[in-house]
Amino acid sequence: MRTIKNANRRNERTLLALENRERKIENALDILYNDMKLAVDMADRMKIETQIDKLHKNMDKIRRQKRTVLRRMRQMADKIALPDRDRLVRKTRIEHRVGLEENTHIRREIEHNQKLLLKETQSLAHKYAKMAAEIASEKLVKTIDHKKEGDILKAKEKFRKVAKKAYNKYYKKIVERIEEVTSEGVNNVDIKMVCRSAIDGLIRKLEHQYLTFVRSRNEAKKEAKKVLKKPLRKSMKTLSKKFKSTITKKTEKQTKKEASKVTDKIVSKK
Questions:
Q1: How far is CA 102 from the centre of its chain?
Q2: pTM for this structure?
Q3: Would you say the C-alpha torsion 18, 21, 27, 30 has a positive or negative sign?
Q4: Where are the domains of the chain?
Q5: CA angle, 248 then 254 then 258, to 5°
Q6: Residue 182: which residues within 8 A CB-CB, separation 6 or more?
Q7: Could you tell me the pLDDT band of residue 267, with boundaries at 50, 70 and 90?
Q8: What is the pLDDT of residue 270?
Q9: What does the pLDDT look like over 21-38, one tens digit per residue?
Q10: Where are the alpha helices (DSSP H) in the chain?
Q11: Who contacts 170 (Cβ-Cβ below 8 Å, separation ≥6)?
Q12: CA 143, CA 160: separation in Å to the nearest integer?
């Protein structure tokens, strides 16, 4: 444990030295970029550009060295048990240097926020992509020629392809729009509102098409069923009455025939 602590101290000293050098190079680069804006002569501009290139190369070299030192520190920290490891990581500020400095509470909040956002995105994308698939399949109904047998046989496959294509297209579009709006983060309370406002125009367009193509067709079917229901019931009743009367007449005739045959047989035996 003592050897690991001593090695970490040495690594930390080298890291601090590298960070100081990196900071100086960044300051020098800022000055050179400002000089570049003001430089008019071509020779001066070329000179500044060569200096900037040299500093960038030095910066890359320093960052590579930093990465190797940080890897070494992480490997040493992994050799220790959890309580001592956490203490060592906090002391040497490894997470801060790598860019992972956050406590468990903040991490939990971020994860919860991302879960809520994902859930809302998936539900909206599925709902309106499904609507788009229904619209696409209803539009296809008009194009299919029902008189040709080939079209009737291929209709099922056509519907499946068109619906799948529309679903995937709108699902991707909705997810991309929501991701674009929420890329910089959003509060848990405002997630639903922000997600819906991101796809507001798309929702209106789909809902309008759904009303014209799908719902109007379904309503027409319902009305047609209502109109046809009463006369159908009446006709079915009359048909059933006629059917019953014909059956009873036939059965009566058949029974009379059978009875006469039986009586004739009995008489002949006597």
A1: 28
A2: 0.46
A3: negative
A4: 2-98, 104-234
A5: 145
A6: 117, 191, 194, 195, 198
A7: very low
A8: 46
A9: 888 888 888 888 888 888
A10: 2-38, 42-78, 82-92, 94-98, 104-143, 149-181, 191-198, 200-210, 216-269
A11: 125, 128, 129, 132, 133, 202, 206
A12: 15
Would you mind telling me the total number of residues written for the chain in this entry?
270
pLDDT band at 228 (very low <50, low <70, confident <90, very high): very low
How many CB atoms within 10 Å of residue 198?
Answer: 20
Copy the structure tokens of residue 96. 């801060």
Residue type, 227: V
Instruction: Tell me the two tokens of residue 56.
Output: 């960038």
Token code pair at residue 124: 């909206």
pLDDT higher at 83 or 120 = 120
| Token duo for residue 103 | 């406590």
Q: How far, in Å, CA of 187 to CA of 203, rounded? A: 23
Structure tokens at 22: 């990196």
Predicted confidence band of residue 209 (pLDDT cuts 50, 70, 90): confident
Distances (CA, A) of 168 to 158, 165, 194, 195, 241: 16, 5, 22, 19, 55
pLDDT at 145: 56
pLDDT of the residue at 262: 46
Handedness of CA 138, 143, 148, 153 (dihedral sign): negative
Is the Cα dihedral 34, 40, 42, 44 positive or negative? negative
User: For residue 65, which of 19, 4, 5, 29 has the smallest C-alpha distance?
Assistant: 19
**Which residue type is seen at 136?**
A
